[in-house]
């Protein structure tokens, strides 16, 4: 493993090893407090962030490393200088680059032109660190994560694709339920379906909400991702049946609710579900740090 650009670059063994290491670091952080001694990580963000920025910063600190944040003005790739020049220069000083970009091709460009590991902290196509934290959360909740039945409801976006790839590689069952015209990219769906077949998983895509029945966990995300200029009023009309509320949770028979956050309360999910007993949202947020630390330790030590 040289970079973490997308979950589908991992084998099942690599993914399981990352989850196992994340659990070890979470259980005994003291054992890893020098894991990144003398290492510097640059975090380059073209979009806002709370969880990703803070969990990387504090996580790197807990591993004994140092991190430096380039904000949306200084981290805007291709504006003041090219992605290639950015990558070449950062590689002179940093031991790794964590990047959140509008275009996934910018993250690929950093990996291609730099000389240090690159970690995708969210792009238009993928959010692998989120999916790692989510499968860590599910593996804490269920004995065998490959037996989990996960349903994603709402907009087919970067979070959806990373969950699809993760579920497929773990051999789990996942149903993606989106309004027509809002499914994840067809090419990525086909790739995820191939992986699901290879690893004994099952991936189903539908617009029919009846398919929600019989799932362990229901996952949703914002209906409008960062960089998408669609008006919420237009989206609300099409998406309102797909809101995760108490009735939908009951129909699913699900014991867990998941959301990567930030959430739009009262839009894609109700307060009742967000703050209810099935909600895993804060466990997911906490696990961002442990999952990312496992990635950093794997790539850098
Ligand atoms: N879930 C997530 O990535 O949150 P942020 O956008 O706040 O980093
Ligand atoms: N799909 C969302 C995830 C935010 C963490 C976005 O890209 O804005």
Q: What does the model show?
A:
There is one protein chain. 43% of the residues lie in helices and 14% in strands. The protein is α/β, with parallel strands linked by helices and 301 residues long. The longest helix is centred in the last third of the chain and has 20 residues, at 281-300. It has a five-stranded parallel β-sheet. A four-stranded parallel β-sheet has the order 2-1-3-4, with helices on both faces. The radius of gyration is 19 Å and the shape is globular. The site of norvaline has 9 residues, from helix 6.
Key phrases:
301 residues; alpha/beta; globular; binds phosphoric acid mono(formamide)ester; binds norvaline; ornithine carbamoyltransferase activity; Asp/Orn_carbamoylTrfase; amino acid binding; Orn/put_carbamltrans; transferase
Structural class: alpha/beta
Biggest sheet architecture: 5 strands, parallel
| Global outline | globular
Cross-sheet strand order for the largest sheet:
7-6-5-8-9
Gyration radius over CA:
19 Å
- Give the number of DSSP strands: 9
Write the H/E string, N to C: HEHEHEHEHEHEHEEHHEHH
Proportion in β-strands: 5-15%
Helix content: 40-55%
Segments where pLDDT lies below 50 for 5+ residues? Answer: none
What ions, cofactors and ligands are bound?
phosphoric acid mono(formamide)ester, norvaline
- Overall pLDDT level: 97
Distance between the termini: 12 Å
The tally of helices reads 11
**Oligomeric state of the chains?**
single chain
């Amino acid at each position: 493993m040289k970079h973490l650009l997308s979950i589908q670059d991992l084998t099942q063994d690599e993914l399981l090893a990352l989850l196992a290491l994340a659990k070890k670091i979470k259980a005994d952080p003291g054992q890893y407090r020098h894991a990144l001694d003398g290492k510097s990580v640059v975090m380059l963000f073209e979009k806002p962030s709370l969880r990703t920025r803070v969990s990387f910063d504090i996580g790197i600190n807990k591993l004994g490393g140092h991190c430096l944040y380039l904000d949306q003005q200084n981290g805007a790739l291709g504006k003041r200088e090219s992605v290639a020049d950015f990558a070449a220069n950062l590689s002179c000083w940093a031991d790794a680059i964590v990047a959140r970009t509008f275009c996934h091709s910018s993250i690929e460009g950093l990996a291609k032109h730099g000389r240090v590991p690159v970690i995708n902290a969210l792009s238009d196509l993928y959010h692998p660190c989120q999916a790692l934290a989510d499968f860590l959360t599910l593996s804490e909740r269920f004995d065998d994560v490959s037996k989990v039945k996960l349903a994603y409801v709402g907009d087919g976006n970067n979070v959806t694709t990373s969950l699809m790839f993760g579920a497929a590689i773990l051999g789990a069952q996942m149903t993606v339920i989106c309004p027509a015209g809002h499914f994840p990219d067809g090419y990525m769906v086909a790739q995820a379906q191939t992986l699901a077949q290879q690893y004994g998983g099952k991936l189903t895509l539908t617009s029919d909400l009846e398919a929600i029945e019989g799932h362990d966990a229901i996952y949703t995300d914002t209906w409008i991702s960062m960089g998408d200029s669609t008006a919420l009023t237009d989206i609300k009309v099409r998406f309102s049946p797909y809101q995760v509320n108490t009735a939908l949770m009951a129909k699913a028979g699900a014991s867990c609710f998941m959301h990567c956050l930030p959430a739009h309360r009262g839009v894609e999910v109700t307060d009742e579900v967000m703050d209810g007993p099935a909600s895993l949202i804060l466990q997911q947020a906490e696990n961002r740090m442990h999952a990312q630390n496992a990635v950093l330790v794997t790539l850098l030590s």
